[in-house]
C-alpha cells in the first residue's frame, strides 16, 4: 500500500480478529469517504481493477451522481481482497472471506473452513518458498561458474 488516506492502519490480523471487527460497524456510517482515485493510488491499483472488484460484488461504494464513494468498510474489504490475492485465493474464496468478516466470524463451521484454507495456503506458500530458495541457490552456483570463465 502506498498510503495517503485517513483510513486506520491495521494489519489483516486486526481486521479478522482484532479491532477491525469493531471498526467494521463504525465504518458503515462514520469516518471518511474515499473516491475511486484515492483508493487506486493508495493501493497501487488501476481504476479498472477497482471497478472489476465492484462488479464482482467485493466492493460496494455509494454513488453521488457518477462519483463512487467508498467508506471504511470498502477500504477494509479492499485490504482483504489484496490479501486474498496475495496468498492465492480465488475471487470466490475472497468473497467468502469478506462474507465471514462481515458476519463477525460468528459461524464456527465457516470459521473452521477458513482456518483450514489458511493452513492449506500456508503449506503451499512454504513449499513454494523452499522451491524458490533452491532455485536461487542453483542460480548462484551457475553465476559463480560463469564468473570463472573468460569474457
TrEMBL record:
Q: Which GO terms describe its molecular function?
A: DNA binding; DNA-binding transcription factor activity
Pfam families for the chain: MerR_1
Q: Does the keyword DNA-binding apply?
A: yes
What the entry lists under PROSITE patterns is as follows:
HTH_MERR_2
Keyword Transferase on entry? no
Q: Where is the HTH merR-type domain?
A: 33-100
- Keywords from the named record: DNA-binding
Entry-linked InterPro entries: DNA-bd_dom_put_sf, MerR-type_HTH_dom, MerR_fam
SUPFAM superfamilies attached to this UniProt entry: Putative DNA-binding domain
Q: What is this protein called?
A: MerR family transcriptional regulator
Amino acid at each position: 500500500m502506498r498510503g495517503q488516506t485517513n483510513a486506520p492502519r491495521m494489519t489483516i490480523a486486526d481486521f479478522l480478529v482484532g479491532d477491525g471487527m469493531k471498526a467494521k460497524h463504525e465504518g458503515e456510517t462514520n469516518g471518511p469517504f474515499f473516491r475511486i482515485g484515492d483508493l487506486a493510488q493508495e493501493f497501487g491499483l488501476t481504476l479498472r481493477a477497482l471497478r472489476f472488484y465492484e462488479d464482482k460484488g467485493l466492493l460496494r461504494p455509494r454513488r453521488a451522481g457518477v462519483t463512487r464513494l467508498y467508506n471504511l468498510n470498502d477500504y477494509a474489504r479492499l485490504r482483504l481482497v489484496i490479501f486474498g490475492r496475495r496468498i492465492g485465493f480465488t475471487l470466490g474464496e475472497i468473497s467468502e472471506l469478506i462474507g465471514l468478516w462481515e458476519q463477525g466470524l460468528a459461524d464456527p463451521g465457516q470459521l473452521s473452513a477458513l482456518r483450514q484454507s489458511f493452513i492449506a495456503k500456508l503449506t503451499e506458500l512454504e513449499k513454494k518458498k523452499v522451491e524458490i530458495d533452491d532455485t536461487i541457490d542453483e542460480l548462484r552456483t551457475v553465476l559463480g561458474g560463469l564468473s570463472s570463465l573468460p569474457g
